[in-house]
Design brief:
About 75% of the residues lie in helices and about 0% in strands. It is mostly helical. Helix 2 packs antiparallel against helix 3 (about 85-125) and helix 2 runs parallel beside helix 7.
Length: about 240
């Protein structure tokens, strides 16, 4: 692999970007104790200080481009180990490529829509509008973006995870088979189970669990890239 040291460094940066995304999503989606969910509306939004939403916007804006540095290198590392004559490998590498790109760019869109809902709800809550009017306004705003936001989320999380699990099972990603669970889809499922407990600190941690899945995936990818042979330098006589 060419520039192997650079690739591993960029993947380390990507893991740091995933940490920033985790903090951003925790700031915007950790609602605290006694929160009540009403559809897409969270009762504790008005109680959350505005600086949390502002910091979440800044962190997601910084974290996603840094995460993308690592995502690109992992895509390259996976592509190098596919079997050229295997249609399954080719399709899964393509799916992984597409979904990782959608994950990077989609996070900005999906999280931006969610933050906009929270901020608008918080601002309207301090006005003289009736509660039902506020809820209908915020939910109506979300439905303008719902189809695209949900599609981005499903393809990004589902596509990257399914492709990753296939590639690990087929040893195209050279890590221990137990690492097959290190993906955002499995982490999303664990997060949903945490929410069912109704224990608020577990529910709050679940807010950041999808980017945590990407962090684990990049860690597995970094281990994979470390095992790839470095590109052999050609001798002067071989270049002639």
């Amino acid at each position: 692999m060419k520039n192997k040291a650079k690739a591993m460094r960029n993947m380390l940066y990507g893991m740091f970007g995933a940490v920033l995304c985790m903090i951003s999503m925790w700031l915007s989606s950790a609602y605290g104790k006694d929160n009540i969910k009403n559809g897409f509306i969270q009762s504790n939004w008005p109680k959350m200080p505005m600086y949390r939403f502002e910091a979440a916007i800044i962190l997601i804006g910084i974290g996603v481009p840094i995460f993308y540095l690592g995502a690109k290198e992992m895509i390259k590392g996976v592509a190098l180990t596919r079997r050229k004559r295997s249609i399954g490998d080719h399709r899964m590498v393509k799916l992984f490529d597409l979904s990782m790109h959608m994950g990077a760019f989609g996070f900005l869109f999906v999280d931006g829509c969610y933050l906009a809902m929270a901020i608008v709800y918080k601002l309207l809550y301090s006005t003289n509008l009736m509660g039902a009017d506020i809820i209908s306004t915020v939910e109506g705003m979300f439905y303008y973006f719902a189809v695209v936001a949900i599609a981005y989320f499903v393809i990004a999380v589902g596509g990257s995870s399914i492709a990753y699990m296939y590639l690990v099972s087929q040893s195209r990603i050279r890590v221990n088979k137990l690492c097959i669970v290190f993906n955002p889809l499995v982490m999303f499922g664990i997060g949903e189970l945490m929410k069912l407990t109704k224990i608020y600190y577990l529910v709050d941690f679940a807010a950041a669990i999808v980017p945590f899945g990407y962090l684990l995936m990049l860690a597995a990818g970094m281990s994979h890239v470390a095992k790839l042979p470095a590109a052999r330098r050609r001798r002067p006589e071989e270049r002639r």
